[in-house]
Amino acid sequence: MILRSLPTTCPSLESFGFHLSCHFSSRLGPWSATLALPVWYAIQNLQKLRIINVPVITNDALTHLGGLSSFTSIKTRLPTGSDLEDILYSSRDPILFKNFDNVDWEIEVWGDVEVFTRLWPHKLTSVSLQSQVRFDSSLFQEFFLSLHMREAFKNLQYIHVRESFLDPFPTDTTMTIDTIRPLFCLSHLRIVEIDTSSGFSIDEDDLEEIGGAWPYLEVLYLNMTNGGTLA
Q1: CB 216: neighbour CB atoms within 10 A?
Q2: What's the number of CA atoms in the CB half-sphere (13 Å) around residue 24?
Q3: pLDDT means over runs of 10, the chain (231 residues)
Q4: N or C: which end of the chain has fewer CB within 10 A?
Q5: List of residues 6+ apart from 17 with CB closer than 8 A
Q6: What is the pTM of this model?
């Protein structure tokens, strides 16, 4: 009821978001549609929205936001690959999402990320992924390769990739400079944050290569939670 009243009580709202407790977040699936519908009602009647942060969103709501000239930033669960194809490909609207600057997705299936990077239509400056799936180096390289091959991501300045539930004890998998090397062609990057349960090993030569590839780099976090290894 509170969500449905927002357009009346706050018609000029520009930023809208709410969070669920850990208990309800873990059970979001069974009642996501029940939550998404009042969110959609609020969104379609708030014409000045610029930023939104919600646990779940309907396809219609996402498409609506994509057409708002004021809207720039979204944080929510990434739609499924088939839903993304319906939104990004089937509509064939050249204006859709043109004003988006930042996307922050919570992901459950890495195949959905492939659809996002393949079909996203307009340039972004910031991409964040929080994954419920444990990363490995092959997933990272596939994602990073897809970024550098698409014009929509050529001007990225900020990349943040994180596992949702980090294991306090790193896995036996170790990532190296080769894992992130596909990103070196994105020369505008200023902030790179990668946080996983895997190990991360780099040496001084790797750091020099990073500095050469990203001349505007201001912040570099590689496994800030568990730490990495400087060889």
Answers
A1: 10
A2: 10
A3: 72 78 47 67 82 87 87 93 86 79 92 92 94 76 88 95 68 79 94 85 91 95 65 43
A4: N
A5: 51, 52, 53, 54, 75
A6: 0.84
